[in-house]
Every structure is written in C-alpha cells, then in structure tokens.
Amino acid sequence: MSESFLNHLPEELRGRVVKITSVLPNSLSIFQDVYNFALDEVLESKRKQVKSSTSINGKHGEQDKVEESDIILKLDNVSVLSPLRRKLSLALHLSSTTKKPVLSLLKEDHSIEFSITDLKSSINMASFLPVPEKQGIMYLFVSYKQSNNPKYTEPLLITLNKESTLQQFVNLGIVSSDEKDFKKCVDYLRKQAIITGFRINDPFASESNAFHVDCHRSTKEGVLYFLSDHIIFGFRKPILLFNSSDIESITYSSITRLTFNVTLITKTNEKYEFSMIDQNEYGKIDEYAKKREVIDKSMSDELKAKKMNQSHNEGQSALKEASEQIEVNINNIPMDSDDENDENFEGESELSDGSDDSDEDSGEGSEAEEVVDEQQEEGEEKEEEGKFSIPHNDAIKQEIPVDVKKEMKDLHENSPDVVPADFEDIPIEIDEDDDSGVEYD
Q1: Do residue 118 and residue 149 come from a single domain?
Q2: What are the pLDDT digits (tens) for 205-238?
C-alpha cells in the first residue's frame, strides 16, 4: 500500500517523504492517510460537477425524460409561440428527483425542451387570453422568473385549438363525449394548476371587465390587453407585461377623427407609446385609468410647454426657411450696369456739355440727326467715365405731316383745350379785371 502511494508522488516529493520516514518510520502511515483524504476530495468534486451538468436545471436537462407514471396532465401538439416556436406537448408532471410539480414542454420522446420548477414561487402570473378575430383559438400566457435553460427568458405563450383540445379531454375521459363547451377544459386546467401550486386567470369570462384593443408599438402591430392587475402587449417580441400598480401616469396624443395614441409612464419614468388606437376605445381606456387612479398628464404644464416649444421651433424654422428663400430670390435678380440701359434714360438727362437745348428748335431733320450724332458721341465718351447725359426730347422733334397738322388745327378751333400738332404758341387772353395777384409775362 505504501509502495503504491509513494509511486504516485512526484520524484522530488517522494524523496522528501522517504527521507522523513527513514528517520521516523511511523510517519509513513500519516502520509498515507493524507494522500487518501486528498484523493477522496478530488473524486468527490468531480462527481459533483458531473451531477450538476446532468441535472434537470442544467444543459443536460433537455435529454432527461419524463416517465409516463409522473405525468399529471399532457396536451399533445400545442403550438408554442414563445420563448421558442415549435409544436410540442404541454405537461404538468412530477419531478423524477424531487417529486414536486413541474410545468414542461416535451418532445415526442418525452424529453424535456423547456421546464419551470417550483411553480408557486417561479410563476409571476398566468392567464387565458382571447385571440382577436379567431374564435376557435385561445392563448395561454405564463410569466415566470426563470426556467431550466438560461437562454429562455421570454414569457411562455401557447395557442390552444379549442376543438382539438376538447377532443383530447374527451379521449382522456375528463369530459363527456358530447361536450361542446370549451369552458369545461378551461375550468379543469385551472383546477390542476391550483393543485400544482399556481393560478391561471380567466379575465375574459362574461362577468369580467377586461378588454383588448388593436394598436401599434413603433412599426409592430399587436394587441394591448387590459386586465384587472396587468397590461400586456403582444405578441411580437419583445412581449411587454406591466403591473397596473406600476403605471404612474398616462397621456393621449396624436388625436385624429379616427385614431389616437396612448403613452404609459411607469413609476420609474419609463415611457411606452402605443399608436393607431381606434377612437371608439378611448372611453374604456380612460375609465380603466381612472379606476386605478392613474394620472392623466395629457394637459400637464410640462406637456404644454413641450408642445409650445415644438410650435415655436416649427415657427422659427418656417421663418428661417422663408428668409432664406427671399435671400435666394434677391440674389438671383440680375444687377445690370448703367451702360446696358443707357438708351432707356435718353430724354431725361441734360446735354453732355451741361447746357440745356430746350430753347433751340430745329425744324430740319438733317440738323436734328447731326445733333443726335454729336450727343451720342459725347454720351459714349461720358459712358467711359461712368456718367451719362442724354439730350432732351425737344431736340429730337420729327416733321409732322401737313394733313395731320391741318386736322389738329381744325380740332383746336372746335376744342380750344387741344394743343395744336405743331406745338405753336397759343395766345392767352388775360382778364384785366383779374386781381388774383398772378403776373403774366
């Protein structure tokens, strides 16, 4: 025995033990006891690790099977939507080790895919819920603290086909063969849950005030369930579950003729907005909030200030945009130089030499043309200097035809107010008795 013990020691350590035992021969048995104790501790530690890895709460739990004799109730081929999506069997059964009730999802060979142990303390709430617009299907919703597999954290959601579930209850002899009321199945399931340590609510029974509304959460379409103690949004991941007592306040916004939005604000100041709710649902939601003394902050000073700031910012933005547009339009107006429009100013400026030619009257066309030519030349010289002087219109009179002159004179004789066509001076008669004080030359 001692030889075997020494052979398992490293050479250097074995030499030290041999040296001590050569001086104290009785010490060899002590070393043997120490070796055996250490060996037993190592083996026990390895056994615990193996047991932990194969327990129902570990990775190997998926390979554990439920014995037929341990099954309390099993529904085959139910549609599981969360925390995984698969056709599995729902079972209430006893644990093979603790003999305590367990809620599990089983594969065809009765191996466990998902399970919840310690049902009384692990399940937060469970409820039957209607499926909107599908009378033949019902949801079973279960919120729990933890499962056998850490990767499953979403609530358990199962759809029960009423017809097939009722038929299974008939086959199990739980209800009579002529039974058509699915409520019998619901009542039986609720009783079995109570026996195993938890409660399944049925809030949408005829006497209940629970209701649900269609809505959107961001781009996800879903259903908002208002229960007596909870509010659930589902059933696109992530599924949201609120305790009614945790809702601090509510606001209504984006109100139109057809729809409105609801924002739930928790006591930890988390905000969850649900949009596109039908206007017909407002009364029920508002009554639900008032009964639970939830504060309506739709008209709060904080929200008003926020809306006013938004309106102010929108107004400032509109003014800024208009200002920028005006600036762009002004900048796009062509700013022509004076030399491009000098012809438009002819007849409004004085002669280039500063004299006024209004007293000189040229009746000859050739003389007028010479004056214009000279003034154009002088104007071009001034143009180079940045100044303009265009001759008066009187210096560019044109010869009026004789027949036109005669017609205008005849018109003047009949109508003295009409000026003659040749612009000749018209004698003005002065009333000698006029004592207005105005002198005439």
Answers
A1: yes
A2: 866 789 999 999 988 999 999 999 999 998 888 8
pLDDT computed for residue 374 by the predictor: 57
DSSP 309-363: HHHHHHHHHHHHHHHHHHHHHHHTS----GGGGGGGGTBSS--TTS---TT----
CB 217 within 8 A of CB 274: yes
Report whether 61 contacts 86 (CB < 8 A): no
| Spatial separation of the C-alpha atoms in residues 138 and 301, rounded to whole Å | 43
Domain co-membership, 47 together with 163: no
Greater model confidence, 17 or 186: 186
Residue that terminates a domain, selected from 196, 229, 263: 196
Domain-embedded: residue 186: yes
How far is residue 361's CA from residue 29's CA, in Å, rounded to a whole number?
153
The pLDDT tens digits for 161-203 are: 999 999 999 999 999 999 999 999 999 999 999 999 999 999 9
Closest residue by Cα to residue 349 from 319, 400, 316, 383: 383
Q: Given 3-state DSSP classes, what are the helix, strand and coil percentages for the chain, each rounded to the nearest 5?
A: 40, 25, 35
Domain edge (last residue) among 163, 196, 229: 196
Domain check: are 155 and 251 in the same one? Answer: no
Which one has a higher pLDDT value, 393 or 76? 76
- Domain limits at 44? 2-53
* Phi, psi (degrees; rounded to nearest 5) at 366: -65, -40
Stretch 280-292: mean pLDDT: 94
Long-range contacts at 97-102 (CB < 8 A, ≥ 24 apart)? 97/55, 97/56, 101/72, 101/195, 101/196, 101/197, 102/56
Q: Tell me the CATH number at 100.
A: 2.30.29.120
pLDDT at res. 37: 82
Please state, in angstroms and rounded to a whole number, the distance separating the CA atoms of residues 165 and 358: 116
pTM of the model: 0.57
Instruction: Dump pLDDT digits (tens) for 118-137.
Output: 999 999 999 999 999 899 99
Q: Which strand (E) or helix (H) includes residue 403?
A: helix 402-414
CA 398 to chain centre: 79
